[in-house]
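Let us begin with a simple case.
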Amino acid sequence: MVGLVLCFGNNKGQTKYIKANDMTIAYESFGHTDAETILLIHGTGSQLIDWPVEFCQALADRGYRVIRFDNRDVGLSTKLDSLAAPDWAAIIPFIKKCEPAPLPYTLVDMAEDATGLLEALNIEKAHIVGESMGGSIAQLLTINHPEKVLTLTSIMASSGNPNLPQGDEKVIKAMRKPAPNTKDPEILAAYLVHIYKALGSLDDEATLKKSALAHINRSWYPEGTTRQVAAVLIGDNCDRRAALAKIQVPTMVIHGDADPW
């Protein structure tokens, strides 16, 4: 997992690129490089910009180095076009079986990307924070590489318990709806805003549209999101509770009592 920085910037959020786990990972760093690090891992289809600059800077102002990054297949990180779309007919029979499935890649692979990013940046240990799919990735990183973790924060993420109830049907329908086959940013923004609202966002329409357009203009790549969905579909139906119970580092779980997804 040895990495090589390909593009240099300052420590105030300029996008940089580094090789990690055979991926080119786009990341941004806030704060002093010698401070304790907080690694932020986002959810399905989300880009690093979905961790607000103000949030990252506020943590940096408290004395931390904060790293936000694009997972594989989204944003400015490696796009895995060669893996093609998931074969849903082949994948679906493996749901809840916790057996190797014919996936383009797994959540474990994505956890290795995050671990590789830490190693490439010569960060021995970090506070690992993950949201949604990123929370599952954070859990797996902590399970498989406890020596890299100072603390774990899992936000609105599953434990992999296959017996958890399904999400709200309206949300599932919104999440499964294919992206419009168009490059028109207004149409694509409306599609994303619909998903944001279904997930329960309390932001106003203008704020949601601004966020959607930022996502679209930076890197619109729904093919990668589809492959991430496949990884989540299998990975979050494979029970991690026994392994999670063995975690020794300080851990915080943040989850709403009315999460529709």
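The second case is a distinct protein. As before, the sequence precedes its structure tokens.
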Amino acid sequence: MAVEEVPDADAFRREVLEPAGPMVVAFWAEWCPFCRRFRPWFERAHAARGGRFLIARLDDEGNPLWEDFRVAVVPTVAVFREGRVAARRDGILGRGISEAELAAFLDATLTTRPA
């Protein structure tokens, strides 16, 4: 599956909150150099895990969902299960998230189920 853009709250509900399986969302911004570097890592991480999870990207361009999830630093990655945030990894200001940090986060959160 390719990375899907989630443009608004209705699409977010439909594409992220309603599916039963895990959904990994990257909060990102086109203006952010760390986000532009992050995108191919995110896509490779999905492919390396056999597409076991759906993925979506949520740009900040006027998107109120950023406020709903209190995203302050990009990229931020969140794993949703059954309509709720099961795990989250915020980027570090001025550095973002490395490819190794992303892989470790996904491996840890996608192999364990919340209690």
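The chain has one domain: 4-111. The chain has a mean pLDDT of 83.
Keep these points in mind for the review questions at the end of the chapter.
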